[in-house]
Amino acid sequence: MAETNSPLAPAAFLILFALAGGDKHGYAIMREARLISEGGFEIGPATLYTTIQRLLDSCWIEEVAGPESSDSRRRYYSLTQQGSSVLNAELKRMETLVRKSKAMRLRNADPIS
Amino acid sequence: MAETNSPLAPAAFLILFALAGGDKHGYAIMREARLISEGGFEIGPATLYTTIQRLLDSCWIEEVAGPESSDSRRRYYSLTQQGSSVLNAELKRMETLVRKSKAMRLRNADPIS
DNA sequence: ATGGATGTATCATAATATGATATATTCGCC
DNA sequence: GGCGAATATATCATATTATGATACATCCAT
Which residue among A60, B1, B87, B96 is least enclosed by CB atoms within 10 Å? Predict the structure, then answer.
């Protein structure tokens, strides 16, 4: 069960989403996020690493050992059970909103008294 | 055509979404937002009115006349063409993410080298 | 062995969100 | 015809989140 259904901050969402596709180090997350959002949204280093720190503090991600022979600078991260749950809640929230938007006739109807 | 496909701040999104269902005054937006997010996310007065101001500045919403005989305190807002376009871009972005998440096998696969 | 890409990190600042509080108007109701 | 609760907008002070710029070390191809 996820915390709440409050919206996730954009950068946090992207990082969780990227990690859902497999463990990654910071830079790889950055590249992946660019792909995911199709170039429209870049996470720069500042946002990336401060957000990673926050996610670690919240126990939504954790640091894990990477493959033995990889670049020694890299620090690998993995979604925790809790993080996965938060991500799924957010995806569900989005899905609901999209569904609702389709169910309603968009663009201005009459004012509500 | 919408500005970008960068994610919308949560409060801004909810306000645009609420207005897509018809023109409303601030307090009604607040109530609607609570409904939309099914109780999980409340926009308090501070967030509401500062965000409304920002949306006005961006020309994503505009103030309009309400029904004649309504409570004189009320100030009504309406989505602009531009705001509508931004909202639709955001919904499309969400839809894409949801679709992508379904296309991938969620939860940790192998680390990426 | 040198230069460009990779990778992490942090400073200073801006943008956003929020709790608390204030104040005025409207409305039901007796 | 006045009282209290809900409605409605507004703002202050603060917390949270995002970001540009920059720094610096390591790796890798040539």
Answer: B1
Q: From the centroid of its chain, how far is CA B69?
A: 28
Provide the whole-model pTM: 0.85
Q: Assign residue B58 a region (left: φ > 0; alpha: ψ between -120 and 50; beta: otherwise).
A: alpha
Residue A25, CB, less than 7 Å from strand C? yes
Domain architecture of chain B: domains with CATH = 10-98 (1.10.10.10)
Token pair for residue B73? 């305190």
Residues 6-45 (B) with a CB less than 8 A from some CB of A:
6-7, 10, 13, 17, 19-24, 28, 36-38, 40-41
Residue range A34-52, pLDDT digits in tens: 888 887 788 999 999 999 9
**CA angle (A68 as vertex; A64, A69 as ends), nearest 5:** 130
User: Distance (Å, rounded) from C-alpha A103 to C-alpha A97?
Assistant: 10
On strand C, nucleotides with any atom < 7 Å from a protein CB are 6-12, 15-22, 24-27
Residue–nucleotide distance: A70 CA to D27 C1' (Å): 10
| Nucleotide of closest approach to B13 (CA, C1') | C16
